[in-house]
Structure formats: structure tokens, C-alpha cells
Amino acid sequence: MSAHKTILITGASRGIGYGIAHRFATLGASIVLLSRSAAAVDTARGSLPKIPGFANQSHRCIVGDVGDAVLWDDIRRNEVAGKQKDIDILINAAGVTHHSLLVATRTGVVEEVLRTNLLGTTLACRAVAKNMLGRKAGGCIINVASLLGLHKPTAGSTVYAASKAGVVGLTRSLAAELGPAGVRTNVIVPGYIETDMTARMSEVARIAALKATPLGRFGHVDEVADAAVFLVENGFVNGAEIVIDGGLACT
């Protein structure tokens, strides 16, 4: 179902977003990568494969801040250089993390985390869903949350956890709103995945996380991409929370 589709992916220049983009490109999808960094997203686009036999497959970039409502108004109004009507699938993977006790967290940091993780995901869903509803051809939205926002809150993760819990609630509500029109909305809930975010963990925190995970390792981006493919390909999954955490939620 993903071959010949056009997929808009936020946070696509690195980490989980890029891993998902690369996987769908190998399946013959055309990828629209959105990132704040022009250089990073252009490099990412250039490294995506194009599959022989898929003459219409192409990859393109959008540079902007997902938390900027004007960006999403422009995307919808300008139809991504005239091609927004093709967007079959939206994957919201853009996110920032932060660790500090709430009482010690500056207002600016609170705003940045909520703006990117929750507001950005909400604005993206609103903009693209309007086009999906207008097309009357169904669609698929996948949001990326975090285990910290669902099963494993920890001290110091308050703002981040709140933003990701909001993404889960957003997803479930949208599944009910958009489902009757054939637009499915699901959420991937990763635990610790090997990305640049986890690479910045202290050695003490990393060891503790590994000990708490029954499989004894962090997940790989490819394993998250597997879940994204499943959610796209299975046409009866709507409002689901796919936890990918090596069993961490069970401990």
C-alpha cells in the first residue's frame, strides 16, 4: 500500500524520522521531508533511494519549524508547490527532548518543548487532514510519542512527558474524528531507541535504562520503521498505540 504513495514526514533529517523516510523510499514511496535545517534535510533527501521501475518516485524538502502555524497555512494553501493534494500519509516524527525538574525549568524551555512536540504535531495533523478529507480518498496519519508520556514517567521528564502524552490523546481523538472518512490515525510509542537523543544520555542513565529493559538493549530505528510500515499497510488499524520498548513498560 505504500508503493507509489506520497508521504510527508516531519523531523525527517535524522533519527527516527529519517529511518522511516528511508524505509518507505525503499518501498517505492515518494517522500516529502520537513526539517528546520535546510542543509540537514537536503543531505537526507539526497541519500534516499529511488527504486528502478518507479518512474514517478521523487523526494523533496520543506524547511521550517513545525510549531509555526504560518508554515502549515502556507503548506496547505500552496499545496507544497502544487503537490500537496498527493499527500497520502503523514508521519509526525519531529521532536525535542529536555530533562530537568519542572520547578527548575525555564518558561522558554517549556514553550519550546510543547511547541515542537505537541503544537507542531497538532498543526500538521490539522493541515494535512483537511486535504485528506477534501480528496475523499482516505489517508493515514502516524504520530510518534514516547513511553515517558504513556507508561514510564520519570522525575525530570515532566514537560517532555506531558507533550508526548498530549500526542497520544490527540491521536485517539483524531481516530474517532477522521475514521468515518477513511482516514486512520495511529501512534508509535518508542522506548529507548539508538538515536542522537539517546547518544547524549549520561553513562549512568544509559546503564540504568538498559538494566530496566528486559531485552537488555536499546531499540533500533529500523524496528520503529517496521511499525510504521505495519500501520500504513494494515487498513483496519485505527487509534492504536504501538509500543516499541523491549518490554520496558512491563517492569
From TrEMBL:
Which Pfam families does this UniProt record tie to the protein? adh_short_C2 (PF13561)
Keyword Hydrolase appears in the UniProt entry: no
What are the coiled-coil residue ranges? none
Q: To which protein family does this belong?
A: Belongs to the short-chain dehydrogenases/reductases (SDR) family.
Name recorded for this polypeptide: 3-oxoacyl-reductase
Alphabetical GO biological process terms: fatty acid biosynthetic process
UniProtKB keywords: NADP, Oxidoreductase
| Parts of the chain that traverse the membrane | none
What molecular function does GO assign, one term?
A: quinone binding
| InterPro entries for the chain | NAD(P)-bd_dom_sf (IPR036291), Sc_DH/Rdtase_CS (IPR020904), SDR_fam (IPR002347)
The answer to whether the entry has keyword NADP is yes
